[in-house]
Amino acid sequence: MHWSWLTENWRDIVTVTGFAATLGGFVYTIYQVRKTRSAASAAKDAASAVLEESRQSFRRYSASYAHRFINEAKIHVHNEDWDKAAMRINDLADHISQMALIEIDWGAIADDLRKWSATCSRLANNELSRFPKSKWIQFYVVLESRIDKFFGPFSEGL
Amino acid sequence: MLTDVEILEILDKLGSKTKLGQLKWTQDKVVPTAFAATLPRSIIKIGFYSPSSAPDLIEISFLNRETQKPAFSCRINEGDAKWDKALDFYSLVSKKTTGLEEILDDLNAFLASK
């Protein structure tokens, strides 16, 4: 191809225009990359919000079940129905032990609950003659407050 | 194996000997609520325990002095028929060994003086 028909001026104009077009394309690419990145960030934020909402829902569900099991256990203990009390306290221990996946301290509480369940079973089998009522009250008051603290809407864990 | 009646009888007799100072008890270095008395061929141990999720209990063991192995051991839980007797005996041993009995005598003598 022979370009000799272009004057020097026109060659400069073509060069500058080409440079401007390249620069424009580069700027446009940066703009698109940034736009894509902010969209990805928004998607990540949305996913985090959904995860947090699911976590809160799970905590509310867990708290309501834990309170239900405690209340039923308290009724059975009050009625000295030791078999049922042992069963309900054990259910609560199973439920609470799931919480150890979130916060390890719940594992120790689940162990304490299993000991309480064993005490109720021993009462049911006439191996014990007295239930340690004051220790039980002290235990469940602390447990209820920990559940409220952990599972409440503005909780930060144990 | 000892029957409940035999255990109560032994506790009564050990209590009398302890009151008279004829049976010396020592406090356990690790568990402060446990005490031991040594006889020519045996060791008597008594301990008070308060588990967080079960009734308080008193454990009494009779060990062979030579082998240090328990020949008989029993746990008396709060609320059991033998509980009151066992707790009285434990309190007596504890007061005698820790010096609380002397302190109470001294305190009472001071309070009774004019």
In short:
In chain A, 81% of the residues lie in helices and 0% in strands. Chain A has 158 residues and is mainly α. In chain A, 17% of the residues are buried.
Walk me through what this model shows.
- The complex is a heterodimer of chains A (158) and B (114).
- Chain A has four helices and no strands.
- With 158 residues, chain A is mainly α.
- Chain A has one domain.
- The radius of gyration of chain A is 34 Å and the shape is rod-shaped.
- Chain B is of the alpha+beta class.
- Chain B has one domain (4-112).
- Chain B is 39% helix and 28% strand.
- Chain B has a five-stranded antiparallel beta sheet with strand order 1-2-3-4-5, covered by helices on one side.
- In chain B, helix 1 (4-19) packs parallel to helix 2 (83-98).
- Chain B starts with a helix and ends with a helix.
- The mean pLDDT of chain B is 93.
- The chains are: A mainly alpha (158), B alpha+beta (114).
- Chain A binds chain B through residues 112, 115-116, 118-119, 122, 128-132, 135, 139, and chain B through 51-56, 77-81.
Q: Report the span from N to C terminus of chain A.
A: 79 Å
Distance from N terminus to C terminus of chain B (CA atoms, Å) equals 54 Å
Shape of chain A: rod-shaped
Strand content of chain B: 25-35%
Q: What's the rounded overall pLDDT mean of chain B?
A: 93
Major sheet attributes of chain B: 5 strands, antiparallel
Percentage of residues in helical conformation of chain A: over 70%
Regions with little confidence, pLDDT below 50 for 5+ residues of chain B:
none
How does the helix and strand content of chain B classify structurally? alpha+beta
Give the neighbour order of strands across the main sheet of chain B.
1-2-3-4-5
- Uncertain segments of chain A are none
